[in-house]
């Protein structure tokens, strides 16, 4: 958004200059003690008058953010300026800022409807199996209730994960698997392990919006390639890796978030060939694996865990309350990751891992997943049909999973619709929250399991009618 | 350790050169694509012959770590070189390397004796209350079992923590408290929030050894001040903050790990005055709070949470298996920390927080802690007396807690004793693992709750006898 667009009056022009300086301090391009741009230079940069910049600088002095040294200029105050994640990266409309969307989903009351969130309603989760698992845990040996986990994590769960990987063609041994607190912590550890400040990371466009927030926290440069119904656009992929030499590519391959697309074997092959050529490490986030009806290709299976790191968790199908994720990778990388996990989380706990194991080894989980997949298929069909009636066209018909990526009627901006719906206590997920290039303003992600209440479509219908 | 000491033969000289290069690559002073020092220059640096360096470089070429460009020199290969935490910072004896000590404690079998570990035996923990709490959880509403936590974390637990803080003179409101997965994750989030690469952090010498590992993961410069029986040596503190201008000071104030010392009000006042003068932010880790017999001064209480951030967890007194820590700080900092927590851990889970709350609100926990404190006092007296018989003198008589910091008979090196004991399946914690300056080789930290088995003293006695 240009300065001209925000600065409609003198007051907002001053605010825009103040905000630009604050942002530079937040993202550390101006550090404590460093000199601000001269009034004249910054007026030129911001395309405002010098008196606007003087006014803005004086207000920042009054706030103690900067200090003036007569005859010398303005300097960033020596005071503590902690990392402000929300101010790193481009300033986005709140409704499409990844952090804001996460907070809305996590914060809103149980009374809110959340077709924009990324999880199933509690009543869809295996609560009976969880209760049974907790009762079993209440009878477990003392150490399970009180001790830290071992560095790699609870061995029986790692054995079980290794067997499940085998079913998907990924040859992982239990010693090559490390448990993490969650899928997000797994990616975070991998970013710490592989990235240096300023390294470039490649993501899909669109992709899971929290990847953007996480990569901001690592101060990585982010680049993206368009996602197609069979995986990343391979020509764009070739161009981007050649030009930007990203250190990592973070993706979902089985069921892509937010589109529900599935990688084809041909694209998998070509992605891996380019990864070899440009020495790219791939993080394959397989968090939706258990939703699959028919197994899709995994990059980790094609590659044999050479340059692909495979991660997952149980938060989508078992419980997000009991945190437990995992990383499978080359053995020497797992060694380094264990050190990092101990240093930053001291090994983690046993309780969640024991609970997850109790539930997974119970025959009931497989049956639960069968029921769940059938239920999601029905919800997918019904949501698709109801969205079409409102003029919202699915980008593709997902084979499985909970997400439907829908295109709004021409000319509508999903951020406007999302803001409108929030007033009705309906949390939506506008497309640009998922899009680095901000090219998905006509799209919206719908979680079909959260779309079974008529009020979702009533609210959507009203918001669309108001703007067409 | 000088090169001369390791390089006793030609073979080990080559190995030392290889290791020095690998270390520079690991700590990123040599990045992929960068040129290695010339053979002649590096021979001078390492005080070896040029043919030794040529030999070492050739072996590294064979391993693919570096590549030779004829006529131009040697370059670090473009290949992936992930962060090797163990190789950042000085090369330490394995027995005093913080990561190695953590791994030994976490990995060793239940059959091992662990007077060096930092936690209570499972049988000392409130297992009946935990079992009761788990059964209550098995009857909880669905959302508690399946949903993500809210951004700040489970409100009733935050209210309870705020009340407990009040008892220690810290005025915190529930909205100024954020739950974290653990005490370690809390410090990790604070490091992300406050530090930039290369910032300096001040710790006590000795201090909890994992602070060193955690700060390495953040690539911070670490400086330290000696700890006295009443807090940090205030003259050294003044000198170090003036010279190094650290961004953070990380400390325990109530019961200091590893010494069991307690901050005096006078030292608290002076530390805070210096912190004001040099704009230092303090992280006060109060993880041992519940072990206190009489309340000691808290920096956060003196300071009113202005520049002190106060953290804690329940892993030492309730359960390390159910992960749950917390951060209390200025409201605007909590806002930024919530964003970071969502980005890097997606809010965390509810299960551990609900379980901790179930246990804490039960009257049984207070009673359990009374029993535990009495039991620790007895173990402290008994361990002290048995150590004295072996010639190990406590540095001070701790008022409370589980740690006793003991000085070995003159001339003994704690790392040697620790290595010796490990062969007997006894895990000890040698002093230098806690000491940045490596000046605590005569000291050892004893966890008195893990010292009730005769074999601990038999092993210690044998190891000491062998070396005197």
UniProtKB/TrEMBL annotation, chains A, B:
Gene3D superfamilies (UniProt xref): Aspartate Aminotransferase, domain 1, Type I PLP-dependent aspartate aminotransferase-like (Major domain), Winged helix-like DNA-binding domain superfamily/Winged helix DNA-binding domain
Pfam family, one: GntR
UniProt KW Transferase keyword: yes
Keyword Protein transport in annotation: no
Ranges where the HTH gntR-type domain occurs: 11-79
Keywords, comma-separated and alphabetical: Aminotransferase, DNA-binding, Pyridoxal phosphate, Transcription, Transcription regulation, Transferase
GO molecular function annotations of the record: transaminase activity
Family: In the C-terminal section; belongs to the class-I pyridoxal-phosphate-dependent aminotransferase family.
Protein name listed in UniProt: PLP-dependent aminotransferase family protein
């Amino acid at each position: 958004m240009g300065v001209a667009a925000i600065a409609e009056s003198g007051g907002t022009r001053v605010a825009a200059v103040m905000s630009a300086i604050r942002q530079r301090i937040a993202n550390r391009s101006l550090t404590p003690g460093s000199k601000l741009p001269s009034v004249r230079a910054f007026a030129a940069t911001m395309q405002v008058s010098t008196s606007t910049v003087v006014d803005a600088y004086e207000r920042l002095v009054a706030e103690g953010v900067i200090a003036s040294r007569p005859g010398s200029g303005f300097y960033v105050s020596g005071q503590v300026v902690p990392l402000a994640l929300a101010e790193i990266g481009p300033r986005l409309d709140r409704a499409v800022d990844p952090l804001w969307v996460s907070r809305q989903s996590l914060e809103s009351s149980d009374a809110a409807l959340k077709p924009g969130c990324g999880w199933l309603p509690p009543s869809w989760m295996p609560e009976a199996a969880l209760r049974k698992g907790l009762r079993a845990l209440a009878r477990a040996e003392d150490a399970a209730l009180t001790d830290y986990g071992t560095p790699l994590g609870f061995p029986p769960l790692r054995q079980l994960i290794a067997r499940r990987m085998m079913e998907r063609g990924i040859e992982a041994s239990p010693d090559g698997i490390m448990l993490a607190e969650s899928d997000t912590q797994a990616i975070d550890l991998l970013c710490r392990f592989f990235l240096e400040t300023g390294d470039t990371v490649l993501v899909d466009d669109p992709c899971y919006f929290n990847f953007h927030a996480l990569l901001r926290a690592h101060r990585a440069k982010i680049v993206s390639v368009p996602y197609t119904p069979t995986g990343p656009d391979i020509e764009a992929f070739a161009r981007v890796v050649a030009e930007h030499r990203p250190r990592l590519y973070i993706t979902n391959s089985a069921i892509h978030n937010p589109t529900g697309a599935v990688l084809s074997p041909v694209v998998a092959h070509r992605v891996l060939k380019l990864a070899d050529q440009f020495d790219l490490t791939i993080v394959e986030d397989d968090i939706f694996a258990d939703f699959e009806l028919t197994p899709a290709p995994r990059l980790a299976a094609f590659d044999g865990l050479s340059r692909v790191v495979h991660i997952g968790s149980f938060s989508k199908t078992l419980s997000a309350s009991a945190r437990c994720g995992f990383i499978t990778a080359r053995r020497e990388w797992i060694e380094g990751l264990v050190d990092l996990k101990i240093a930053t989380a001291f090994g983690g706990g046993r309780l969640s891992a024991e609970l997850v194991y109790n539930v997974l080894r119970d025959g009931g989980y497989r049956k639960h997943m069968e029921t769940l997949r059938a239920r999601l298929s029905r919800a997918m069909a019904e949501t698709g049909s109801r969205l079409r009636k409102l003029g919202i066209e699915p980008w593709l018909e997902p084979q499985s999973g909970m997400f439907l990526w829908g295109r709004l009627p021409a000319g509508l901006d999903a951020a406007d619709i999302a803001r409108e719906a929030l007033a009705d206590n309906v949390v939506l997920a506008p497309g640009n929250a998922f899009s680095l290039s901000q090219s998905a303003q006509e799209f919206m992600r719908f979680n079909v399991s959260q779309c079974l209440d008529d009020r979702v479509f009533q609210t959507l219908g009203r918001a669309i009618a108001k703007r067409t």
